[in-house]
Structure formats: C-alpha cells, structure tokens
Amino acid sequence: MRKLLLVSGLLAGSALLTGGSALAATGCACATLTKAPVCVASIEACVSGMHGICVAPCDYHPPMKKYRHKKKSMKKM
User: Fold this and answer.
1) How far is C-alpha 51 from the chain's CA centre?
2) Which of 13, 20, 40, 51 gets the highest tally of CB atoms within 10 A of its CB?
3) Long-range contacts (CB closer than 8 Å, 24 or more residues apart) made by 22-25
C-alpha cells in the first residue's frame, strides 16, 4: 500500500512539473454560434469584441507584423 501511495505521488508531482512553459501567454478559445472557436488574447476581447463565450484556455500568439516591401522605381531620363 505504501509503494502504491509513493508511486502515485511521484506521478502526480511529475505531471504538475512537466506542464507548459510559464512564459506562455494564456488566451481564450472564443466560440460563437456561427463561427469556429478562435484563440483571442483575453476574455474581455472575446465577450466585447466577438460577442462570444470563452470555452477553454489556449496558447495565444499575436499575429506577426507584416512588412511592406518597397518597389524600385524606374529613373526617368
């Protein structure tokens, strides 16, 4: 009985310590009736912006900034 308790304690401790990184931003999987769930930054963004309900936590990554490439213009002679 003691061995079973010890093993279950070790397994529970390892499950808690091997979770996701602490630096990950926690977002909210926002679901509405007409759209598929989308990961947003916060619960407020889900409720006020998309008029949905937070279903589950998710790992939120903000969209990457897109750079505008300049076109080379032809020189007039």
Assistant:
1) 19
2) 40
3) 24/59, 25/59, 25/60, 25/61
